[in-house]
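Problem 12. The chain below contains 392 residues. Write out its predicted structure in token notation.
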Amino acid sequence: MNLNLLLLTLCQGLFLTNNVTFMAINGLVGLSLAPSPWMATLPITGYVAGGALCASLVARHQRAWGRRRAFQAGTLVAIGSSALCAYAASTHQFWLLVAATLLAGYYNANAGLYRFAATELAAPRYKERAISWVLAGGIIGAVAGPNLASATRDALPVAFAGAYAALVAVALLALLVLSFIRFPPLPLPSAARPGRPLREIARQPVFIVAVLGCALGYGVMNLLMAATPIAMSQCAHPFKSTALVLEWHVLGMFVPSFFTGSLIRRFGCLPVMAVGVGLNLVCIAVALSGVDLMSFTVALLALGIGWNFLFIGGTTLFTEAYRPEEKTTAQAAMDTVIFTTMTLTSFSSGALVTTSGWTWLNLGSIAPVLLAAAALAWLAMQRRLTQNRAST
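Solution.
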């Protein structure tokens, strides 16, 4: 791994520290401040909705400013939004907290492109490994996020306000690290290579399935992970147990990254993504079997590994869908779909877990998992038909 890729991996870890801390505390802070319990996960919804709203804006900034300056702009927004979250929590202003997390969505959409930038820092034949290694930086967030939330929970008079304040320092460190990374210039559309319209790119089966795999994998993961702190609180588990479950979940999300790229090179994207679908079903089955600490831990661990296979497999598959000059347009389209899906699932998460309970939340997750399975089967069939035509 070269130095630029190593530093980008560190930035991913700092980004995931922000994300995991948000996921660990936003629902609980929202539950304590919201006018109604079903609105508890609106601060989480604001974060992913902000990502959806900012995805196309981030793409424009990437084209205009280049990777490094655009990524640094994201960390500046993270600094300001984290400070605003701390203020909102300290002053018990629920809607200001939602607005602050909506603003933080710019950082979410921006740093979400680290995985694509990774492919530009490595030789083309190593693209899946570059994606895997950068996403493996999430291990830092898996350990740091829950422990940061626990350690700073009571650092300020209002619970968790100190955790938001600590994220300011995390974003400052990310800003510093980004200043040392050298990204190659982005290929831009030109008169000679204008690039295809987005509607043409999006009609490709590989585009459809890659986006569906990533979006549904992220959506189900977000649906269950966002609800976990609230569900565990309802089951009288202490916050330290919740932090432990989230730590194992995020380790499941990112530790497999050390070998997911190699698995994709050996077996292909679709088989790896299919295993991810199977692990999502394992998660649901375990979650439905009980609400003790072990059930939560095993279910969320399986969910994390399933997400890893679906997301890295889908991201690698997606690189086949666009030409170099089309990358910012195509990547923005993909992330807009992902963040929109996450917006719907994070909102549904709070409403379902506080009104219908953990069981119905998991039962509702079965449909999108089966849809992802159907999409993978469809693309595999399309490819077999193409190969048969070519051989005849």
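Discussion. The radius of gyration is 20 Å. Students who got a different answer should revisit the alignment rule from Section 12.3.
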